[in-house]
Amino acid sequence: MRKPGGPNTEKPGGALPLGSVSGELGSKAVVIGLNAAIVTVSEDQPKILVVPQAAGSGANAESWDALPFGPFDPLRHRTLDIGLRDWVQEQTHLALGYVEQLYTFGDRGRNAMELDQPGEHVVSVGYLALTRTHDGELEDAAWRDWYQHFPWEDWRESKPAVIEQTIAPLLREWAARQAEATPEELTRGKRRDRVRLYFGLDGVPWDDEKVLERYELLYEAGLLREAARDGRQNAQKTSDTFAGDPVLGRPMQFDHRRILATAMSRLRAKLKYRPVAFELMPPAFTLYELQKTVEALLGLHVHKQNFRRLVEKGGLVERTGRMTTRTGGRPAEQFRFRREVLNERPAPGLRLAPSKSRANS
After folding, report:
1. C-alpha–C-alpha distance, residues 6 and 90, integer Å
2. CA-CA distance, 141 to 134, in Å (whole number)?
């Protein structure tokens, strides 16, 4: 069995030189890899499938998570999608259901590996995959709560303390330092506005979809372990601050935390205009279970009565006629997803508003 992170996949995004499919751009070989952000929800927590990888060597080696990755082999797979499903099945025994392509990550200097391998430029095709399967043994892989990588994104109980205690002071200090070196008032103002808008500061409402923008801002400010690893500007001053238990989230190999942030942004946005949440539900479920799944993905608490009204009146579900005590307490009615809704209107999603008592607390 081909294993994730094995000796044949130690390149950014799992890309390998693919012979005739590797193009030449000047003296730079372009190689292709596939990355998968595979998402499930278990015990009311959104989880992603990760492959632990050693970062560094010798006494300095750390275990940094990586997204499952592998090469595209055009001699074996007719399409990128088929290739992704094939090696995920082979590596993890998961048969993927819902899969969509996210983005092609190909910027020059996207990770430190290019410094060590100047003759290659890696282009990674990122995917978002949803699965109901989260039980059973996984070889060389594990499910990880995605809020371990993004602790500032979970607002279900209240505003995460890390924002006011750590993120806001550090970003404001960074913005002030940059302002001293930037003569243009407009540029200085935009930087301050990004801090406020992305992290919901100074009375600005929280936007759950700006996961990628928040990650990019923290990376640009040099506050993430990946920025220090990549030798980015300003990173050296803060690289030791988060040693051990990382206050600003578990780092990931290569640019995989950026790819995961892209997947989270896409999924949170898509919940509101496509019924993708049902890809994570069993065939029969209660409305309470559906609400907890949606809340886990959004990182927000939603109003119970409004949620149920939207789901039922929107024609997204139908009654099964069965009851369950699976969630504890009184028996609850079970529902199933109405797939006919996909043909009835163009955007059958969940137009949800967060509970006002928690969204900006």
Report:
1. 13
2. 12
Residue with the two structure tokens 């997947």: 263
- Predicted structure pTM score: 0.85
The residues, any chain, with a CB within 8 Å of residue 303's CB and separated by 6 or more, are 353, 355
| C-alpha distance from residue 160 to each of 105, 115, 286 (Å) | 30, 36, 29
Sign of CA dihedral 295, 301, 306, 308: positive
Cα–Cα distance measured from residue 71 to residue 355, given in angstroms and rounded to the nearest whole number: 43
Confirm if 37 and 67 have CB atoms less than 8 A apart. Answer: yes
Question: Could you tell me the two tokens for 297?
Answer: 């993905």
Res. 76 pLDDT band, cuts 50 70 90:
confident
Longest CA span, the chain: 68
Is residue 255 within 8 A of residue 226, CB to CB? The reply is yes
Contact 282, 132 (CB under 8 A): yes
Find all residues with CB under 8 Å of 59, minimum gap 6, and list them: none
Lowest mean pLDDT segment, chosen from 109-113, 161-165, 218-222: 109-113
Hey, what are 242's tokens?
């988060």
Q: How far is CA 11 from the centre of its chain?
A: 20
